[in-house]
Design goal:
mainly beta, seven-stranded antiparallel sheet, elongated
Length: 110
Amino acid sequence: TCALPISVHGLEIALTPEIDAAANATGTGRHVALVNAVGVGRPLTRALHVGADVAFFYDEAPGGRTHHSAAGLSFAWQARPKTQVDIGSVIDLSRANPHVEIYAGLAHQF
């Protein structure tokens, strides 16, 4: 994995390509698995940040190739100097298995 962050006019852009030598399901041998994610983010206020991303997955497994993609939207709110609240959603863009996941999180530094 190699993250390539870029900032242009207050817009944060990140490219994260990944190449894996994934283990075969049989436990012997390896195959190529690729991921490419692109994300953009921007602060809306000093305490609120919005981000959107899309990721593409490709797996060249001996049992068959798989391709799918997903998109996400997230918000992060810095409630206090050491506390952050996150909420977001991820949408699987595959026609064979479309679904939406919604998540929320709380982080506090002690």
